[in-house]
Structures are given as C-alpha cells and as structure tokens.
Amino acid sequence: MDTEEFRRIGHELIDWIAAYREGIEARPVMSPVQPGEIRALLPEAPPQRAEGLEGLTAELDRVVMPGITHWNHPGWFAYFPSNSDLSSVLADLVCAGLGAQGMSWQTSPAATEVEDVVMDWLRQMLGLSEAFTGVIHDSASSATFCALLCARERASSFSQARSGLQGEAAPLVVYASDQGHSSIPKAALLAGFGKDNLRLIETDEDHALRLDLLEQAIQADLSAGRKPCALVAAIGTTGTTALDPLEGMAALAQRHGLWLHVDAAMAGTAFVCPELRWMWAGIEGADSLVLNPHKWMGAGFDLSAYFVRDPEHLIRVMGTNPSYLRTAQDGLARNLRDWGIPLGRRFRALKLWFFLKAHGVEGLQARIRRDLGMAAWLAEQVDGAPHWERLAPVPLQTVCVRHVPTALAGDETALAAHNRTLADRVNQGGRCYLTSSVLKGRLMLRLSLGAQATEPRHVALLWEELQRAADQG
Ligand SMILES: Cc1ncc(COP(=O)(O)O)c(C=O)c1O
Questions:
Q1: Nearest CA among 189, 274, 191, 198 for reference residue 231
Q2: Would the N or C end of the chain have less CB density within 10 A of its end CB?
Q3: Confidence of residue 473 (pLDDT cuts 50, 70, 90)
Q4: If you take atom 16 of ligand 1, which residue's CA is the nearest one?
Q5: CA of 181 to the centre of ligand 1 (A)
Q6: Alpha-carbon gap, residue 316 to 457, rounded angstroms
C-alpha cells in the first residue's frame, strides 16, 4: 500500500468509524448471528493475487458488522463498561502508524518517557503516594500474574535462581476471596503455587472477604508448616463490586510478611473522585495494584495500569539482559521490557495521553459521578418495586437484581430459569444488553452501568424493559 492509497482509504475509514458511533444507538446491542455465520461470508482460501482495499468499508459492513456486539452502545449494561473513547482510537492509529517497539528506552525513547509521565499523572489522579511507580500492561490478568510471581520470589528468597518452587521445603500459600476474579486463581496456578495452596476465603453478607476467616486460614497454614505468601484484595469484585476490607488485610499482610496485591481492575476508576477513596482506605499498604483504564474510565482496550512499590524487585524477577538488547543508556532510563512478561511493547501510553488531554480530570470526575447517580436511581426503583429483589449493596455502578414472582419464591431452579428468560427477552429486544451471573447459588441479573454514551433516559429504558419482560410471566 502506498501512502496515497493509505491517505484516501484512511480518511474513508475515519468517516466510517465516526458514522458508526453517530448511529450506534439504532443498532441492536447484541449481535444476532449464529456460530459460523460470519466465517461463511469469507472465502476458505487466501487471495492468490493482491485484491487491494477498494470497497473496504462495504466489506466491513457486509462481513464484520453483523457479528459485532456494540460495547459502546448507550444500552450497554452487560459484563463491564469497556469504553473506547474516540481520542484513544486516534492514539491507536498513531501507535500503529509509528510502528515503534518500546522494549528498551533506546528503541524509542518517547514510548518510555511518555509512559513514565502519564502513569505518574494517573498515580496523582488516584491519590496514590509517590511510593508507587506505574507501568502499562495489556490486561489485569497479566498484572496479577506478575504480582504473584513477585510474591513467590520474595517469599522464597529468589527460588527461581535455584530449583524454583520445586526445591522449597514449605509450600507457599495464596489467599483471596471466593468472589475474586478468575484471573486470581489462574495466576496462582500458572505461577506454580498449585490448587492445594490456594485459599478462597468465604465472604460476608455484603460479599466482601471475611477477615476472621482469613486470619484463621493463615494460622492453620502456619501450624501445618506451610508458608503464607500472598494476599489478593478485590476492590470491586466482578460479581457485585464488593469491597474487601483492605485496611484489615493490609495489617494482616504486614504482620505475616505477605505480599498484598489489590485487584481494582474495574472499580479503580472511581478513585479519580476524592470523595470515593474511602473505599480503598489501606491502599498504601499494598505491594502492588492493578486497575484498567480500558474499562469504565474510557481509554480503549488494551491499557491496564500496574503500580508497584518496589520496582527493583519487579525488575529482578522479570529482567533479562541478553547482549543483543544492551545499550549505553541502560541504568540511565527505564527499559520497560523488564517490567512485565513480553519483550515487545506497543506505544500504549499514547492512548492514556490523548484520552486525558481530551477529558481532563474534571471531565472524568463528572462522568463517574453521573454513573454513580444513575446506578443509585436504578437501585431505588428496584427497592421500591414489588417482586424485585436487590442482591447486593451498590457502592459503585453495578446493580445486581432478580425478579421473584410469588409463585416461584424459594425455588432457586425455577427462579434462575425465570430470570434467564427475562434477560433473553430484554436482549432480544435489541435496545439494551445485560448479562447474568450466579451469586452464592442465586442467579442474578448484573446491570453494569458506565458506558460513556449511557444517559439517564437509557437507564430508565432498561428498567422499563425489565419490568415489561417480567410482566410477560
Ligand atoms: C475485578 C476484575 N479483575 C480482573 C479482571 C480481568 O481483567 P482483564 O481482562 O484486563 O484481564 C476483571 C474483568 O472483568 C475484573 O472485573
């Protein structure tokens, strides 16, 4: 492709994306296609001769768009908000256009130094002390994996330099709540702790980790000759945005020498608002924390922010120094390949930079407060409606509900089927999309607010649609 063709088709594509966003509300939120339908629209063999990209937007409309579920739709109430602000779309374009690899400072100094600056801006925006230093990862799953690797190496005095975990006399143990995200057990298993050494502690009636049970589990492991190693606190669990008791967990971590990692992947965005920071009181006791600006905050995927207190330790665990990567500036600047797992790194910091320039801290605060206000309104409607039940507190933007008709009360199987039907009815209507989940044996509809385009009228529409679906029996 030459630059003239790139310019022409590139402008067409920008217009196409802008028109897509302008008209998104008219589309059904959830893709209606069946498995295999999109695949059938493409030839089985690759093009033998160059076809060129003329007519690309028509091809996108024909092949891709039927299979897109619209995460930026104002009727998006499923999974979690994953806003992809247009400012960060432009940043992704620049990132790809520059094609720079940011593995070492010297491979593109701007990639490292812009990341240094925007991660420090983010630290300030969240009210974190200067004790934390940030680095961008692709996902919270990767960051949590790194955290548990660092925990393992600290607790084992760098067993990786000897015979690894296999040479340890006492098994190392990881603790988290039974409401933690699946990325936590996954990280613990991948880091070699083994399922027998993972404790998922029960939660209280608000679905937050029970400190008394955590303490008992630590004592039991100590008595059995095992070594407590890491503790993961969820600030905003995936199911209900429950808040683990971070201050108490930090005290326990300190008392027993545990690594404390905080998973605030979705909810961390809230702490741009100073009045919400009480929810993660105790955060300064963490060794590491992760939050995803690519979720509720609004920077396009992938952009996960990982903060650590001891960068030297992270680099010692992750660092490699082969001769072909050494440069004269090593030691004078950060080489970000040593701050995570992959060697190659995209210039993702551009996304956060463009996004923060576009919105400013005040713009973000206003949107977070708007979303919290809409969630509180919805919770109030549910609380005031007969036969509707709210299953969890609403500290943030997720409202967990179910419909309980008198005839089905007490029959969990029937209630699950009934509420799944309600979700299907709403989703098939095309104007709103929500997902369900199981909370301690009860199927709930998880209404996750916070798409950028969602306004109060869309939340009112969701509530109407839910009630209409329930009225159908
Ligand atoms: C609390 C929490 N932690 C971790 C994750 C995983 O995030 P990622 O997709 O960035 O790995 C999620 C995703 O929804 C989450 O809600």
A1: 198
A2: C
A3: confident
A4: 238
A5: 7
A6: 52
